[in-house]
Amino acid sequence: MRHGCKVNHLSRTSAHRASLLSNMATSLIMHKRIETTLAKAKALRKYVEPLITKSKEDSTHQRRIVFSYLRDKDAVTELFREVSQKVADRPGGYTRILKLGRRLGDGAEMAMMELVDYNENMLKETVAKKAKTTRRGGKKKATETTETPKTEAKAEEVKTEATVEENKPATDDTTKTE
């Protein structure tokens, strides 16, 4: 029985599990997004988030601690140079798990795990969604900022058409009267 056991053993020995999580964490740091099973993604989240927190303080001691987990110099360099800069102001929750459905071969539930600050499309959507919705979740009514460019453009078109029409009949009338 697993009463109170918080570690998912993933049907592997401890050495195999440590190696698996180390390799997956390295891939996540290098590629910013990986596709795996849901159980592995949840286990990886508990493994990689403390490492990202350690990367916020760039010291030799922190680098050595992270290297003992990852065992890859390139991944440690990437983590401390690029990833730590993006997550500097974030207090936690550096990863996102998106469910993808079931795998055809064995029916395992698949998931995509990604670093939150590196998904530019989703960041744009969340900013747009926050701008469009009110606190209660409803959409805001049309604002003046969205209507003014349209009305200004229509007003300019009407002005240019009016000036063209005024100029043409005036020249046409003078030619007809002569």
Brief write-up:
By secondary structure, this protein is mainly α.
What is the element layout, followed by pairings?
Elements: H1 14-31, E1 33-37, H2 38-55, H3 60-70, H4 73-86, E2 95-102, E3 109-115, H5 120-132, H6 144-177
Antiparallel strand pairs: 1-3, 2-3
Structural class: mainly alpha
Reported for the largest beta sheet, the result is: 3 strands, antiparallel
Series of H and E elements: HEHHHEEHH
Name the shape in a single word: globular
Strand order of the largest sheet: 1-3-2
Fraction of residues in β-strands: 5-15%
Average pLDDT level? 83
> What is the count of β-strands?
3
Written description of the protein model:
The chain has 178 residues and is mainly alpha-helical. 61% of the residues lie in helices and 11% in strands. It has a three-stranded antiparallel β-sheet with strand order 1-3-2. The longest helix has 34 residues, at 144-177.
